[in-house]
Amino acid sequence: MNINEFIRQVKNGEIDIVKHTQKIIEQCKKINEEHNYFNTISAELALEQAKEIKKLLKSKDKSIKGKKLLGVAVSVKDSICVKNVESTAGSKILKGYEPLFNATVIEKIIGEGGIIIGKTAQDEFGFGSFSVNVGLGFKIPKNPIDKERTCGGSSGGAAGLAKAADFPHIALGESTGGSIAEPASFCDVFGLCPTYGRNSRYGLIDFGNSLDKIGPVGKTCYETALLQEVIEGYDRNDSTSLNAKNGNYNTFLKKSLKGMKIGIIKESFGEGVAPEVEKNVRKGIDKMKEEGIKAEEISLEMPIKYGLAVYYMIATSEASTNLAKYCGMRYGAIEKLEGSFNEYFTKVRSSSFGAEAKRRIIMGTFARMSGFRDAYYIKAAKVRTLIINEYKKTFKKFDALASPAVPVLPPKFSDIEKMSPLQNYMLDIMLVSPNVAGLPHLSVPVGYEKGLPVGMLLTGDHLQEGKLLQLGNVFEGN
Ligand code: GLN
User: Fold this and answer.
1) Catalytic one among 75, 87, 179, 317?
2) Fewer CB atoms inside 10 A, N or C side of the chain?
3) Which of 433, 426, 391, 396 has its CA nearest to residue 411?
4) Terminal alpha carbon distance of the chain
5) What's the 418 CA to ligand 1 centre distance in angstroms?
6) Closest among 406, 398, 444, 439 to 296, alpha carbons compared
7) Which residue range is the domain that position 67 belongs to?
8) What's the CATH code of the domain at 240?
9) 171 belongs to a structural domain
10) Which residues does ligand 1 sit against, CB inside 6 Å?
């Protein structure tokens, strides 16, 4: 059922929201047995919320009429704090951590009548592209289209569930270097990573503070836009929050594409890009042309050449400092206090962080060490500015840029096992630079090849999410 029709029926009482919620919780449990999309299903919270909505409807409370998400199930990436619901960011070190507060985005969703159904699977702290770097003891989510393949990551559970759920549902993901667009492209759904600062990060378990963005993943462009509209806006609890006017995305979805100009990133079709991916992305560009856009090839030198190095330098530097607080005393994994602080700290961290988290701590610490800091971390920060400058120049001419989201079709788990960390990082080539530059980007499903989905990446200038959704809407029902 169309989401608006669903909300209308909930408002009219044609759907009993408590019964509906009970039913979908059962469905979630069933989906989870097979696909591992959830770390936690928050059945109790969901039912409590449904009962509250029913009560308000019964009392004919006027506030209920305008609620944008009334009764809609919303799943939340595990790294986003939900009050009293275990929030681990997929890490053993946060096992048992139940936040005392809601992230700002969660407050907003609940305020609009959205029902929180659970915390979705991810790479530990967001470190990965296939949701296989899950913390010790967590399960790996499987692609809804082919269970032998990855959902992508790190918001893998979010994207998998967005595709698999056959009830009205929108997922909340998070991207530091591509973790919304990449899994969306592997799971045949829409994923919007907004401008850095557009959505509050208050209550997000940090990966890299200058890079992290919370954003929506939905089966349709409309649903993706709807959740973005609900969660965005200035928040005084987040010192990097933008004080910008909110976007009215619904009006964008109705606009014609005539007169829009797209830059096709030349380098994104070169060596290493699967022909199936190229073919479908080009088809996607043709489809936008039919709707009236003009397209032109452009070259993006800095972002393509240096994006990966800059991203992995900055992201690991920030991650390594963020992870220092997990010492087994304040949050999550707490073991018997024994030995000196250093011995205890080492014991907890050695036994609770997974291999990729440890790798990033080592890389990030190295990049910031005295003697290396200027050569690595500071240099990366400088090149980051050059990347931003090149994009800014490009957006003087174009409304958006198009490229594949990922150069390959969703890989099999058996092939991922054979990849080196570097090969793995290289698949982020198209995604890291928009993230480094804080630019909004949207992955849209453009077609299938060999029974597997392909996603096209549309990148826009800062605060131009509306234009991306306007373009993406062409692929609605694709
Ligand atoms: N694949 C990237 C990484 O491993 C992106 C992760 C993310 O956006 N959370 O860092």
Assistant:
1) 179
2) N
3) 426
4) 17
5) 19
6) 398
7) 1-299+399-478
8) 3.90.1300.10
9) yes
10) 126-129, 154, 175-179, 207, 315, 428
Number of the ligand 1 atom closest to the C-alpha atom of 125: 9
- Residue 314 domain flag: no
Which ligand 1 atom sits closest to the C-alpha of 312?
A: 10
Q: Closest Cα to residue 224, out of 416, 455, 472? A: 472
Q: pLDDT tens digits, the chain, 478 residues: what are they?
A: 899 999 999 999 999 999 999 999 999 999 999 999 999 999 999 999 999 999 999 999 888 989 999 999 999 999 999 999 999 999 999 999 999 999 999 999 999 999 999 999 999 999 999 999 999 899 999 999 999 999 999 999 999 999 999 999 999 999 999 999 999 999 999 999 999 999 999 999 999 999 999 999 999 999 999 999 999 999 999 999 999 999 999 899 989 999 999 999 999 997 889 999 999 999 999 999 999 999 999 999 999 999 999 999 999 999 999 999 998 888 876 778 889 989 999 999 999 999 999 999 999 999 999 999 999 999 999 999 999 999 999 999 999 999 999 999 999 999 999 999 999 999 999 999 999 999 999 999 999 999 999 999 999 999 999 999 999 999 997 5
Which structure tokens are listed for 76?
Answer: 């939340």
The DSSP symbol for 101 reads S
Number of domains in the chain: 1
Q: Assess whether 179 carries a catalytic annotation.
A: yes
For ligand 1, the distance from its centroid to the CA atom of residue 113, given in whole angstroms, is 31
State which of 79, 127, 363 you would mutate to test the pocket of ligand 1, scoring each by most atoms of that ligand within 8 A of its C-beta. Answer: 127
Cα angle, residue 309 at apex, residues 304 and 310 outer, rounded to 5°:
90
Cβ atoms within 10 Å of 209's Cβ, excluding its own? 15
- Choosing from 154, 155, 175, 241, the catalytic residue is 154
Q: Whose CA is nearest to atom 10 of ligand 1?
A: 127
Find all residues with CB under 8 Å of 152, minimum gap 6, and list them: 129, 130, 131, 159, 182, 183, 184, 185, 186, 187, 406, 410
Nearest CA to ligand 1 atom 9: 126
Does residue 154 have a cis peptide bond before it, meaning omega lies within 30 degrees of 0? yes
Say whether 77 is catalytic.
yes
Q: How far is the CA of 385 from the centre of ligand 1 (A)?
A: 20
Q: Which atom of ligand 1 is nearest to the CA of 175?
A: 8
Any catalytic annotation for residue 396? no
Q: Confirm whether 342 is domain-assigned.
A: no
Which of the following is catalytic: 67, 77, 108, 142?
77
307 domain-assigned: no
